[in-house]
Amino acid sequence: MEMQVRDLAVARGGVTVLQGVTFRLAPGRALVLRGPNGIGKTTLLRTLAGLQPPVAGAVTVPSEAVAYGAHADGVKAVLTVAENLAFWAAAYGTHQVAAAMDAMNLQGLVHRRAAHLSAGQKRRLGLARLLVTGRPIWLLDEPTVSLDTASVALFAGVVARHLSAGGSALIASHIDLGLEAEVLDLTPFKAQPGHALAGKALAGAFDEALE
Ligand SMILES: Nc1ncnc2c1ncn2[C@@H]1O[C@H](COP(=O)(O)OP(=O)(O)OP(=O)(O)O)[C@@H](O)[C@H]1O
């Protein structure tokens, strides 16, 4: 499934941070989002994941086609590794727990509660969730944070296999995963200061009218 994004504007805290974002992400391809801290990479990914509405523009794929790997891993602390994966498999209606566990090298941690995992182990569990979703388009926000060199390589292999199987990935990352990927620099899409949400602008006009 190809993701097409046209003239997208996205906002955080009532302020538009990016506008005019336009790109295509074809099956089998990876696209790396670049741009300085605070430009809006997370905000763009959250919008594409359907967690917040865009200010303007269009996205051609439904949020049911995407799996979002956020900063917060979404791991349930009181559940074990196996229980977390089983929970997600039930939520997404899939049966890929064992494969996900193997792929992210979690076999030795199956019965450990997530609360007792190290930061890197927890991150590996969070990334295993992507495989359990069975969804074709992965939106990844700094997926390698807390991972050691071996785990980065492991995850890069997981993404490469996902691409080979016809999936795609949009990745915000400051490090090179060694994947064959195009780069989308968000700097040209930075919204001009003072570009407020339409709703806010309307509210302002209403306030003025009352004065
Ligand atoms: N809850 C919030 N309320 C108001 N502003 C916010 C909120 N969260 C983030 N922002 C601001 O929105 C802008 C975009 O943030 P975002 O997290 O999308 O950037 P980023 O490119 O992912 O940054 P980084 O590379 O540091 O992770 C930043 O200027 C940030 O300070």
From TrEMBL:
Q: Where do the coiled-coil regions begin and end?
A: none
Q: Does the keyword Iron-sulfur apply?
A: no
Q: Where is the ABC transporter domain?
A: 3-211
Keyword ATP-binding assigned to the entry: answer is: yes
What is the source species?
Cypionkella sinensis
Protein's UniProt name: Heme ABC exporter ATP-binding protein CcmA
Write down the SUPFAM superfamilies for this protein, in alphabetical order.
P-loop containing nucleoside triphosphate hydrolases
Could you name the domain of life of the organism this protein comes from? Bacteria
Give GO MF terms, alphabetically.
ATP binding
UniProt keyword annotations, A-Z: ATP-binding, Cytochrome c-type biogenesis, Membrane, Nucleotide-binding, Translocase, Transport
